[in-house]
Design a protein that fits this description.
The chain has helices at about 15-30, 40-45, 55-60, 65-70, 75-90, 100-110, 125-135, 145-160, 185-195, 205-215, 240-260, 265-275, 310-315; strands spanning about 5-10, 35-40, 95-100, 115, 140, 165-170, 195-200, 220-225, 280, 295-300. The protein has about 325 residues and is of the alpha/beta class.
């Protein structure tokens, strides 16, 4: 099964629907399976007295509240409808993360194929229950969470009868330091909860995605941007188009490297083995009628004759023709 790649546009449209469409183009042209946005009304998620998170202060040093910053990044619901229609025409899946009930209800009406729940909502149990009640498939992001908190979140969603849940491991830091990624936590959650798991990558490089795919991630999410130098909280931790295209190539190549898991020779190995494996050959010149003894046989290349593992079958048999030293013995010769 191919890894499902989600291009996380998030709020990197900077509140401009045309920039959002350009991000759709980037995701599609780079080969992503889906593009994800964040659908919200600032008042649904953030109080007017909330201060910026530490990474937001670093990426946007301007003095303003978190509410004021988020307010500037809103897109009207009608524009999300426009973006989804654009995605449908392009042939890429539209996904979005709701930050409140109003946004959730809108996305359900819009007909999104699944609901992505952000890491900030893992302990927001009432909201999780509401999302579960939609009956929609869910991807639950688990940044900042303990295993116990994830377990409780799943229990709440399952209590609605909705068990169509996948878990995404991530670290809520933009960008994330390599030593903080802890991809093995994805394996821990898969073993603990027996659900499909994936990875939301907030690092700047390619290594984390390669490791996650090698460890069994079924889906990968990565922030994209048109330009890292644009103003906004997430641009610096996002990938511009050229890097994102290479990122997807690395993921697809990792899938090829992992293969099917069936141990068997490749088609090219089947050709090569004829030249490099060994066959049973005459250890010296042998005459027709000779009764073969073990010391008359050696194992040498090429591998087009009788396999060495069958040497005991030859011992005691009579030769039907003369053989030169190093000549391959064939079944028709005995």
């Amino acid at each position: 099964m191919s890894v499902f790649i989600i291009a996380e546009a998030g709020v990197n449209h900077n509140g401009d629907v045309e920039l959002a469409k350009e991000l759709v183009d980037v995701a599609y042209n780079c080969g992503a399976d889906a593009i994800k946005f964040q659908t919200f009304k600032a008042y649904e998620s953030t109080g007017v007295f909330a201060k910026k998170a530490e990474y937001q202060k670093q990426n946007m040093p301007k003095e303003e509240s978190q509410f004021d910053m988020i307010k500037k990044l809103e897109l009207p619901f009608d524009e999300f409808r426009e973006i989804k229609e654009y995605c449908d025409r392009k042939g890429i899946i539209f996904i979005s993360t709701p930050d409140g009930i109003e946004s959730l209800n809108f996305l359900v009406r819009l007909g999104v194929p699944l609901i992505k729940i952000g890491s900030t909502e893992v302990t927001n149990l009432e909201f999780l229950k509401t999302v579960g009640n939609t009956g929609k498939p869910i991807i639950l992001s688990t940044g900042m969470s303990t295993l116990g908190e994830v377990e409780k979140a799943l229990e709440v969603i399952y209590s609605t009868g909705n068990r169509k849940v996948k878990i995404m491991h991530c670290t809520t830091d933009y960008p994330t330091n390599i030593e903080d990624v802890n991809i093995r936590a994805m394996i821990t959650m898969r073993a603990a909860f027996h659900v499909p798991t994936g990875f939301s990558d907030h690092t700047l490089g390619f290594e984390s995605a390669i490791a996650a795919v090698a460890l069994g991630a079924e889906f990968i999410e990565k922030h994209i941007t048109l330009d890292r130098n644009m103003e906004g909280p997430d641009h610096k931790a996002s990938m511009p188009p050229d890097e994102f295209k290479e990122y997807i190539i690395h993921i697809r190549n990792t899938e090829k490297l992992l293969g099917s898991g069936i141990k068997k020779p490749t088609e090219r190995e089947k050709i090569i083995m004829k030249d490099v494996r060994r066959s049973i050959v005459a250890a010296s010149d042998l005459k027709e009628g000779t009764i073969i003894k073990r010391d008359m046989l050696e194992f040498k290349r090429p591998g087009t004759g009788i396999k060495p593992e069958l040497v005991d079958i030859l011992v005691g048999r009579k030769l039907k023709r003369d053989l030169n030293k190093d000549e391959i013995i064939l079944w028709k010769d005995i």
